[in-house]
TrEMBL record:
Pfam families: ABC_tran (PF00005), TOBE_2 (PF08402). GO terms for molecular function: ATP binding; ATP hydrolysis activity; transmembrane transporter activity. InterPro entries: AAA+_ATPase (IPR003593), ABC_SmlMolc_Importer (IPR050093), ABC_transporter-like_ATP-bd (IPR003439), ABC_transporter-like_CS (IPR017871), Mo/tungstate-bd_C_term_dom (IPR008995), NA-bd_OB-fold (IPR012340), P-loop_NTPase (IPR027417), Transp-assoc_OB_typ2 (IPR013611). The keyword ATP-binding applies. GO terms for cellular component: ATP-binding cassette (ABC) transporter complex. This is Spermidine/putrescine transport system ATP-binding protein.
Length: 365
């Protein structure tokens, strides 16, 4: 990078971007700790790329600040910021070989002896010996890794990744997710990764921010977001969730009591975001178990009865749909461990769960 800046947390303060009357990013306040792997996760059009482009300096904010440590970098031109970006398209120079693609940034800064650094970088992404190849002679995953070290070679303080794995097939994407995480740990700089793929965000990032309509719905460690989502949007975005509409009637002995469809349930206070009024009781499909009748439900578990309307074998598990008496459809994932109950389509069954695995949201969420 052209300038040395003190390292620090990346902070977005009241950052807003409007395109005409459309608000793409809406007063974002966010601190991304130095050295963390941070993911901005959201559906197409929620404002992820615009946020990234404002950090990179490729888009001017309508208002708000981009700070690195104590320094406002919002007025710096893109090449002056200690920030680099890896795009989905890789954007490698096709006429240069791998070595020269990686060396490009170093040479531009006037550094003459680049061999050691370029080789170190190629080694970091396990591309030793590939220096003389042209990009066209590499696989998609290899091109992606060249793009990554080309962005890292200038030692930015923040690396922005805009759907960098989007063009790879599923198997390669999984490999690269693990690879990217390893590289981030090794180089220790802040990674800000934009994706619409919840599994990708959860696999790699220390912290995930779920974005919706230009705002952050919830921010936290992947397991916390998944296990205890703050809103129905987050619950649904991070995988399947079964949400039962009900009414919370108050707290007793550390549990919130809920009435739903004529039955009574409870959720521990620590897993409830509401304790009275209209609520949604959520249970993830893998936290549900299936048995043939209510008599088989373990003591302390809660249950819902229904009829199995679908059973899909997907290798590690069988995914059932259970239609309840009031017409809701619950997803139940049963591990194919060899000991699990098998239920045929059309049969009556009971889904049960440990209340400590449920969560409660206000209905308005
Ligand atoms: P995707 O995953 O599809 O890239 P995204 O979450 O990155 O989506 P953005 O590209 O940040 O979303 O776009 C946010 C909103 O701003 C969208 O409604 C988009 O149409 C709008 N938008 C983005 N760039 C412009 C632009 N240059 N002019 C007008 N509207 C824009």
């Amino acid at each position: 990078m052209a300038r040395e800046t003190p390292a620090g947390d990346l902070r977005l303060a009241d950052l807003t971007k409007r395109f005409g009357t459309r608000t793409a990013v809406d007063a974002l306040d966010l601190t991304i700790p130095q050295g963390s792997f941070f993911a901005l996760l959201g559906a197409s059009g929620c404002g992820k790329t615009t946020t990234l482009r404002m950090i990179a300096g490729l888009e001017q904010p309508t208002s708000g600040q981009v700070l690195l440590g104590d320094r406002d970098i919002g007025r710096l031109r893109p090449h002056q910021r200690p920030v680099n970006t890896v795009f989905q398209s890789y954007a490698l120079f096709p006429h240069l070989d791998v070595f020269e693609n990686v060396a490009f940034g170093l040479r531009r800064r006037g550094i003459r002896s680049v061999d050691d650094e370029v080789n170190r970088m190629l080694s970091l992404v396990q591309l030793d010996g590939y220096g003389s190849r042209r990009p066209a002679e590499l696989s998609g995953g290899q091109q992606q890794r060249v793009a990554l070290v080309r962005a890292l070679v200038n030692r930015p303080q923040v690396l922005l990744l805009d759907e960098p794995l989007g063009a790879l097939d599923l198997k390669l994407r999984r490999q690269m997710q693990i690879e990217l995480k390893r590289i981030q740990t090794e180089v220790g700089i802040t990674f800000v990764h934009v994706t619409h793929d919840q599994e990708e965000a959860m696999t790699m990032a220390d912290t995930v921010a779920v974005m919706n309509a230009g705002r952050i719905e919830q921010l936290g460690a992947p397991a916390d977001l998944y296990e205890f989502p703050a809103t129905a949007f987050v619950a649904n975005f991070l995988g399947q969730s079964n949400l039962l509409a009900g009414v919370a009637t108050g707290v007793s002995a550390g549990d919130v009591a809920v009435t739903a469809h004529g039955a009574r349930f409870s959720v521990p206070v620590g897993r409830a975001r509401a304790d009275h009024g209209p609520v949604q009781l959520g249970v993830r499909p893998e936290k549900l178990q299936l048995v043939g009748s209510a008599a088989q439900v373990p003591v302390g578990h809660q249950h819902v009865a229904g009829v199995v309307t679908d059973a899909s074998y997907v290798g590690v598990s069988t995914q059932y749909l259970l239609r309840t008496g009031w017409g809701a459809e619950l997803s139940v994932f049963v591990a194919n461990s060899g000991t699990s109950t098998r239920v045929a389509v059309g049969e009556a069954a009971v889904a049960h769960w440990d209340p400590r695995h449920a969560f409660l949201l206000p209905a308005s969420s």
